[in-house]
């Protein structure tokens, strides 16, 4: 049975609806309907970041020039995220990604290669649930995933990153990319909190971010082998 929605989640849902109305569609009533509904917590990261950077809160904290520079680092239509897509039959529902990155243990049921989509699966260990990158298993997975993304070609975009609910494993990967591209941590947290399906707690992503330097140059030292030159221009 669905859990009752808290006032905080209601507020987050309203904020998400303003930023990405497509992600706020009510749950479908039948499997047939579900085939044409975006996955839970689905969103275009570039669109969401633009909305956040244009928000009044960020406008008071960050100069206009800096906000415009950050917008150019990840533009709409390049990086998509969300929950599992086992029920989907049509890639147009998730904006026709050319690459799908599955972070779950389970393989996607659909053989997306038949649609001309490159399919990558990189699973995280169970220890990741604790958001503890001091655990070697989690740290190695995180570094390997970011490294894989950093070597994608622009022709491989849009990239759709997903796990079961599109908030935990996916949230970690997107947060790492944003940090390495130079986004401030408080902006990254705002993007993370756009997920409203499932339990989402700010302290979880803060735990990850607090274990990495604020300076993206120093943070990059924790991601050996990553193609930062390509990553810097990948989502522009």
Automatic annotation (TrEMBL):
Domain of life: Eukaryota
GO molecular function, one term: phosphoprotein phosphatase activity
One Pfam family it belongs to: Y_phosphatase3
Domain Tyrosine specific protein phosphatases: 140-203
UniProt keywords, alphabetically: Membrane, Transmembrane, Transmembrane helix
Chain intervals for the UniProt region annotation (Disordered): 1-35
Segments passing through the bilayer: 172-193
Annotated InterPro entries: Prot-tyrosine_phosphatase-like (IPR029021), Tyr/Ser_Pase_IphP-type (IPR026893), Tyr_Pase_AS (IPR016130), Tyr_Pase_dom (IPR000387)
Gene3D superfamilies named among the record's database cross-references: Protein tyrosine phosphatase superfamily
PANTHER family in alphabetical order: TYROSINE SPECIFIC PROTEIN PHOSPHATASES DOMAIN-CONTAINING PROTEIN, TYROSINE-PROTEIN PHOSPHATASE
Protein name: Tyrosine specific protein phosphatases domain-containing protein
């Amino acid at each position: 049975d669905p859990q009752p929605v808290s006032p905080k989640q209601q507020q987050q849902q309203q904020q998400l609806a303003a930023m990405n109305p497509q992600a706020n569609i009510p749950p479908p009533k039948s499997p047939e309907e579900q085939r044409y509904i975006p996955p839970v917590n689905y969103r275009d990261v570039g669109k969401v970041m633009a909305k956040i950077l244009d928000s009044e809160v960020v406008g008071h904290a960050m100069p206009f020039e800096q906000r415009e520079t950050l917008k150019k680092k990840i533009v709409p239509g390049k990086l998509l995220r969300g929950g599992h897509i086992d029920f989907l039959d049509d890639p147009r529902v998730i904006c026709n990604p050319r690459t799908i990155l599955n972070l779950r243990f389970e393989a996607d049921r659909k053989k997306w290669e038949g649609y001309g989509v490159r399919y990558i699966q990189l699973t995280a260990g169970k220890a990741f649930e604790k958001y503890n990158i001091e655990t070697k298993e989690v740290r190695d997975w995180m570094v390997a995933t970011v490294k894989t993304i950093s070597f994608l070609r622009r022709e491989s975009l849009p990239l759709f990153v997903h796990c079961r609910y599109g908030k935990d494993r996916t949230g970690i990967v997107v947060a790492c990319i944003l940090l390495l591209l130079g986004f401030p941590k408080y902006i990254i947290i705002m993007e993370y909190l756009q997920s409203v399906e499932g339990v989402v707690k700010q302290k979880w992503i803060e735990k990850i971010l607090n274990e990495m330097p604020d300076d993206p140059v120093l943070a990059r030292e924790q991601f050996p082998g990553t193609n930062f030159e390509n990553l810097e221009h990948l989502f522009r």
